[in-house]
Specification:
It is a single chain. This protein is of the alpha+beta class. It folds into two domains: 78 residues; 186 residues, no CATH class. It is 30% helix and 26% strand. The strands form two sheets. Strands 2-3-1-13-4-5-6 form a seven-stranded mixed beta sheet, covered by helices on one side. Strands 7, 8, 9, 10, 11 and 12 form a six-stranded antiparallel beta sheet that branches. Helix 1 runs antiparallel to helix 2. The radius of gyration is 38 Å and the shape is elongated. Keywords: Signal.
């Protein structure tokens, strides 16, 4: 483009020069000032055009890079969602240790809970509430086949129980008679259960409580408890913040006064629906 403009300008100058030569006797004033200014403007326009084209090319390259990144992220999300849809277990309740809300009230009526994807994480997140799915409010209307109670520490499942959820309600599923599998090998065969319920020993603030017998802190034996510290009687009731999610960590029941107990980070409840 610039070359063509220059050639046209040269042709124009030659023509003007021939004309001015013929008229030079009567007029010696230069006549090229305007033409030089025009050429300068045309050259500047050409340079500006090239700069714009260069900028557009760079922007197109950046856009293509961003587009590729977005498509890759969307593909990752789609793959994760596909994997999630294949998982038959649906999270309906999640409690975090030290969350500050009574876990039984959270389970019963949603106190201190949110039905938000961000609160479904089984590891630390920006959600300061417990997670509670609205399914709990219409439990008996759902074709629930199995229910899973699980405890996590450092993002790893450390204990679980699977229950038969058929014909259950939001309280009755958590019972010894419905246990079908567990990481605690002795929980099914145990014949002595003082507590095995979500409400547990509410006077002491012991919920999701599976306990064999009371006989004093030094001899109390059990499997798990979400302790809220209403009455701090034993070491399992004493925590820096509540609730404390206590569990027997060696695959069987343990003395509360022994080193056989750990404190989990997360308590979770899942349901598995019957296939249509």
């Amino acid at each position: 483009m610039l070359v063509i403009l220059c050639l046209l300008f040269v042709v124009h100058i030659v023509g003007v020069h021939m004309q001015t030569t013929a008229e030079s006797k009567s007029n010696d004033c230069p006549r090229f000032d305007y033409d030089y200014k025009l050429l300068e403007r045309l050259v500047r326009i050409e340079c500006a055009q090239r700069e714009v084209e260069s900028t557009l090319a760079a922007l197109r390259e950046k856009f293509q890079t961003i587009q590729a990144d977005v498509l890759r992220i969307l593909d990752d999300i789609r793959r994760l969602m596909d994997n999630k849809s294949k998982d038959p277990w649906k999270l309906v309740f999640r409690v975090t240790a030290g969350g500050g809300t009574n876990p039984y009230y959270a389970w019963q009526n949603g106190t201190g809970t949110l039905d938000s994807d961000n609160c479904m994480m089984l590891y630390p997140s920006s959600c300061t509430k417990y997670y509670r799915n609205k399914l709990l409010d219409s439990w008996t209307n759902w074709p629930i086949e199995k229910v899973k109670f699980a405890l996590y520490k450092n993002h790893t499942q450390v204990a679980y129980i699977v229950f038969d959820g058929t014909g259950s309600d939001m309280e009755s599923w958590f019972s010894k008679q419905r246990v079908v599998a567990s990481s605690w090998s002795d929980i099914i065969e145990s014949n002595q259960m003082l507590y095995f319920s979500i409400q547990g020993d509410s006077l002491r603030g012991r919920y999701f409580f599976i306990h064999e017998a009371y006989g004093g802190c030094n001899v109390d034996v059990g499997w798990t408890v979400a302790a809220f510290g209403i009455q701090v009687s034993c070491s399992i009731d004493s925590h820096a913040s509540y609730p404390g999610l206590v569990y027997a960590k060696n695959g069987t029941k343990a003395l509360y006064s022994s080193q056989g107990y750990g404190v989990a980070d997360v308590l979770a409840v899942y349901v598995k629906l019957q296939e249509e």
